[in-house]
Amino acid sequence: MKNKIRWGILCGGIAGVIDVIPMILQNLTWDANLGAFSMWVIVGFFVSTSALQLNYVLKGLLYSFLTLVPSAFIIGWHNPMSLIPIFIMTIILGSFLGFILGKFFKIENRK
C-alpha cells in the first residue's frame, strides 16, 4: 500500500507540474498555481488508493473532475468560458494519470 501511495503522489505531482507550466506562462496568481498542483497530487493519491472497481482511466477522470468541482464554481462564477481550457486539461491529465498508474500497478502485481 505504501508503494501505491508513493507512486500516486509522485505521478500526481508530475501531472501537477504539467498543468502548472502553462499557468505560469500566463502569469496566473500563485494561489491558482498551487491550487492546481495540489489538486493533481490529491487526485494521484485517490486514484492509487481507491478500491473502486473501475478502469484506471475512468478512475482518473472521475477523481479529477470530482476534485475540480468545488474550484470550478469559484473559477467559473464570473467567467464560465475560462472553464473550457480547465476541463480540457482535466480530461487529458486525468485520463493520462489513470492510465499511467493502471499500467504501473499491473506490472507491479505481476512480480
Describe this structure in words.
The protein has 111 residues and is mainly alpha-helical. Helix content is 84%, strand content 0%. The chain has four helices and no strands. The protein has helices spanning 2-25, 30-49, 56-76, 83-110. The radius of gyration is 14 Å and the shape is globular.
- Total strands: 0
Number of helices: 4
Residue share in helices?
over 70%
Spatial separation of the terminal alpha carbons: 15 Å
Instruction: Tell me the β content.
Output: under 5%
Low-pLDDT stretches: none
| Global geometry | globular
Q: In sequence order, what are the helices and strands, one letter per element? A: HHHH
> Largest sheet, if any?
none
- What is the structural class? mainly alpha
- Over the alpha carbons, how many angstroms does the gyration radius reach? 14 Å
Q: If you average the pLDDT, what whole number results?
A: 93
Quick structural gist:
The protein has 111 residues and is mostly helical. It has 4 helices and no strands.
Chain-wise SSE layout:
Layout: H1 2-25, H2 30-49, H3 56-76, H4 83-110
List keywords for this structure.
single chain; 111 residues; mainly alpha; 4 helices; globular
